[in-house]
Structures are given as structure tokens and as C-alpha cells.
Amino acid sequence: MNEEGSPRGGESGTPPRGASPAHHASDIAGRTVAWVDFGGCGPPLLALHGTFGRGSVFAPLARCAEGRFRIIAPDLRGHGHSARAEDYGARAFVADAAAFVEHLGLGPLPVLGHSRGGVVAFQLAAAYPETVSSLIVEDVGAVLRRPEVAHPVLDVRGWPRSAASREELGAAIEAAGVPDGGYFLQSAVRRRTPEGTRWELLFDWDDMMAVQDSGMGDWWADWLGSSCPALLLRGGESPMLSAAAAREMCRRRSRTRLVEFPGAGHWVHDDDAEGVAEAIADFLAR
């Protein structure tokens, strides 16, 4: 089966400033891991996406980061072009991130995590402190469950996985229960099949239920389990991390700074890419 948008093999050097992102696929700990190096100058920053995402979702942030830091973003297990897995437990994601950093020989380095990837990031800092020099957590709290979060899990069982066109796939996803399917469509690719061209999602809905479920819980011990400098980013209109919860995270963990983005939702790096890039660059400079 052929598809458009598959990663290129190889692990060549850093792309020159202004170059297109370089996509790679590596065998790490016996599993295929797809990742994108957005290139440019500045210190490398590992970026971990949230559920339903892939490394390429950080493209707008990477453009704004040009000359300030260089984003390297893997597709987490079961997402994007990385291999699916039997285990979507929290510790499996953390072990993957540690193995990825070791494979590239980049640690210790700053780590950014959005949503579910944010939980992975601060758990990585707690479990593998030699890997993380500083921590940037985007719009996720130390507790991810009801009642602290009104809707921590999106029930996507049985949702459509493919359609004849990208537009039809987006409409079908929206009809299933979300007002805007654009985020999901970032993981859609066009494939040529014996039945003709189809647009298909790179993830499996049942896998995504397992990913969400493994993120549920009280993670205070992990949040407080590292001592590196930390930056907490919160969308002012986000339903996932309340202002009170964000302030409590900063109060209880030393060397933690909070930056809020009025008007931004859960995907702060999309709603205010320039603002997030500036906040990260300032944090790294400090």
C-alpha cells in the first residue's frame, strides 16, 4: 500500500537554517519511531505531542522558534508513523522518550510536552533526571481525572477512520461529536488502495482510548519528583487546566514559572505560536 506523507529514512545532519523539516524513521529498542527535526539554529528541544497528534503538529511553533531553539518531535507510540503497541501505559511512554533521547545522544535537553505529552514530559523528568535539563509543560495538570477536569476523556470508540476525501473525513469526525475536526486531520494521509484513493487516519481509535485512559490519575508525585527549572503554559480559555490548578502546581514545585495566554484554548502552541515561542525562548535564556 502506498501513501503520501510517509517519513524518509536515514538520520542525516541538522538541516540548514530555513530548510524544510527533515522526517526520519529509526529503529529504537526494537520499535519503529518516526520523528521530525525542524532544523534551524539554537539549542535542541524535545517536543512531545498529545493524544491523537504527531510530531508535525509543532510546525507552527517551529516556524516561530526559528533562530531561538530547534524542535525535534517524535511520533509517540501508536501515533503518526510510529509503530502501534500492545502497551499504552504511562511508563511505556516515558521509557520510549528516554530511549529516543539516548538514541540521538542529545541529553540532557529541554523537554516540552503538550497535554498527554506534558504528563510524559514531567514523568520523564522524575524518572530520568539525567535526560531533562529543563521542563516545559503545556496545558495539563498534575491531576487528570474528574472532578478536577470536567471531560478528561473523549469517547472516540467507533468513530470513522477513513473517507473518500479529507473534507468528508473531517465532516464525519465532527458529526461524531467534535465541533472542529481539524486537529484530528493533522494525522490524516491520502492512501492509494485497490478500491481507490482514500483519506485515512494514522491512529486507531481504540488505541487512543487506551492512551487517554493511561493518562488518567493523580500525578502529583511525578510532578514534584524533579528539581530542574520548569515552565508551565496555560491557555486562558482552556477546559483542561484551571487557573487555580496551575497556580497550585507552581506553589508546590520550586523553580516553576507560570505563563498564561489570554484567549488561547487547550492547543496554546496553535492559538499563540509566537507567544509560546517567545515564552520558551525567554525561559531557556534564563
From TrEMBL:
Protein name from the UniProt record: Alpha/beta hydrolase
Membrane-spanning parts: none
One Pfam family this sequence matches: Abhydrolase_1
Gene3D superfamilies reported for this sequence: alpha/beta hydrolase
Record's keyword terms, sorted: Hydrolase
InterPro entries: AB_hydrolase_1, AB_hydrolase_fold, AB_hydrolase_sf
Domain AB hydrolase-1 positions: 43-272
GO MF annotation: an example: hydrolase activity
Stretch list, region Disordered: 1-25
Superkingdom in the source lineage: Bacteria
